[in-house]
Automatic annotation (TrEMBL):
<feature type="signal peptide">
    <location>
        <begin position="1"/>
        <end position="33"/>
    </location>
</feature>
<dbReference type="InterPro" id="IPR050490">
    <property type="entry name" value="Bact_solute-bd_prot1"/>
</dbReference>
<keyword id="KW-0449">Lipoprotein</keyword>
<dbReference type="InterPro" id="IPR006059">
    <property type="entry name" value="SBP"/>
</dbReference>
<protein>
    <submittedName>
        <fullName>Probable secreted solute-binding lipoprotein</fullName>
    </submittedName>
</protein>
<keyword id="KW-0732">Signal</keyword>
<dbReference type="Pfam" id="PF01547">
    <property type="entry name" value="SBP_bac_1"/>
</dbReference>
<dbReference type="InterPro" id="IPR006311">
    <property type="entry name" value="TAT_signal"/>
</dbReference>
Length: 430
């Protein structure tokens, strides 16, 4: 069981930012002292609102919500990757916002367990919203004690995008479905001065692709165990998966210096045509320029002989963004209910799909017609197999060290034993 929420524990688990630097990052934080207990003010803290995909739709939704609820003041706070740290600092001061919109990952995994947010299962049922949510999303957001951490909202498909124009230019006949075909395609692409697979080897995008490749020889149950414990050496399937990754890496499948790239570098290389292949979640697929999207197909990651999967793999997750309720929000539950119901309304959900190309964790018949690659990923169905997204299994304390281990893993010449050792080292102290 995790220790109680405390200033020492929270800041020690954070990114190393001191409270003095975290507090100013919370836009409008100085006003919270007067507003956090005001029943007529709803304070929402979100990663949406700047350049994040879906931000314009979200801000427009807030304007509609305000117009429909003139007696309720809505304060919108925005943070990026530091949202969890900023929220925790505000919670320590008991000045936290009422609703938090963030994904289930890293530090947020512990929030409900330590009382930083509340179990929303009762609210979901009392408000009659259970049928609005996909059952797989409810399962993903429910912890081991049966608590629903947040109201599920955004989901994502995470296929492999292939620029067929670049493949054809290099003389590659079709999308590779096996490791040998991928290695052959990479050689032909390089001969034409085209980067093969681009990935953010120095951030979460590379971490997810590495985890996906490792699962080539792992069943779902085995993958859950490996990513929960960090036992990459004790699992035969994990050892085989790492060997496969190293074989692909040293054969030149990944672009040069992938270990230093980020998600921004990756999307830039693919969107400008300097690389032919990327592992792209829905939000990245929605940003592919039209002229590139017209010659792009989505599929799965090629398999090696003996793989446990019978089709190339993709990732899917239903935990991209949820609507979390804080202890302060529980004191203003009528206002929170209005906001959650508004966000769950079919018309609000449809606008995120149509205007922003977002995948949703909610039931809907709306399709991303304006975002053809997102729609294509939704239609992959049984043509691909699904690998496990490790986020909810990796201990929070191991999440950031795994990024460093990922960079080491993408460094050409690093042997499989050193890759395993780097990954396992990330779990020490977790």
């Amino acid at each position: 069981m995790r220790p109680p929420l405390s200033r020492r524990g929270l800041l020690a688990a954070g990114s190393g930012l001191a409270a003095a630097t975290a507090l100013p990052a919370l836009s409008g934080c100085s006003a919270l002292a007067a507003e956090d207990s005001d029943p007529h003010t709803l304070v929402i803290h979100s990663q949406l609102g700047t350049t994040a995909p879906g931000s314009p739709t979200y801000l427009a939704a807030l304007r509609r919500f305000r117009a429909e609820n003139p007696g309720l003041k809505v304060k919108n706070l925005i943070n990026g990757d530091d949202l969890a740290q900023v929220y925790e600092t505000s919670r320590l001061a008991r000045k936290e916002p009422d609703v938090v919109m963030v994904n289930l990952y890293d530090k947020t995994l512990a929030w409900t367990d330590v009382g930083a947010t509340v179990d929303v299962k009762g609210y979901l049922d009392d408000w009659g919203l259970r049928e609005r949510v996909l059952p797989v999303a409810l399962k993903s957001w429910t912890d081991g004690k049966g608590r629903l951490r947040a109201f599920p909202y955004f989901a994502t498909n995470w296929p492999i995008a292939y620029n067929t124009a670049l493949l054809e230019r290099a003389g590659v006949d079709g999308i590779p479905r096996t490791g040998d075909a991928l290695i052959g395609a990479a050689r032909k692409l390089r001969a034409k001065g085209i980067g093969p697979v681009t990935t953010g080897g120095n951030d979460w995008t590379g971490q997810k692709l590495l985890a996906q490749i490792i699962q080539t020889f792992l069943t779902e149950d085995e993958a859950e165990h490996v990513f929960a414990t960090g036992d990459f050496s004790g699992s035969r399937g994990a050892r085989q998966g790492i060997d496969y990754f190293v074989e692909l890496r040293d054969a030149g499948v990944f672009v040069d210096k992938a270990q230093g790239l980020t998600s921004d570098s990756m999307t830039t290389q693919f969107n400008t045509g300097s690389a032919a292949i990327e592992s792209a979640m829905s939000s990245a697929l929605a940003e592919v320029p039209e002229k590139v999207a017209r010659r792009t197909e989505v599929g799965g990651w090629p398999l090696a002989p003996g793989a446990v999967h019978d089709k190339p793999t993709i990732l899917r997750t239903y935990t991209l963004i949820g609507l979390w309720i804080s202890p302060n929000g529980a004191k203003k539950i009528e206002a929170v209910e209005k906001f959650v119901r508004f966000m769950y309304r079919p018309d609000t959900v449809s606008r995120f799909i149509k205007e922003s190309g977002r995948d949703m964790a909610l039931r809907t018949d709306t399709v991303s017609t304006g975002f053809p690659l997102v729609a294509a990923a939704q239609r992959l169905g049984g043509r691909v197999s699904q690998a496990l997204l490790p986020d909810v299994y990796v201990p929070p304390a191991a999440t950031q060290p795994l990024i460093t281990a990922t960079s080491t893993s993408f460094t050409r010449g690093t042997g499989a034993a050193k890759v395993r050792a780097a990954l396992e080292a990330a779990y020490r102290g977790a």
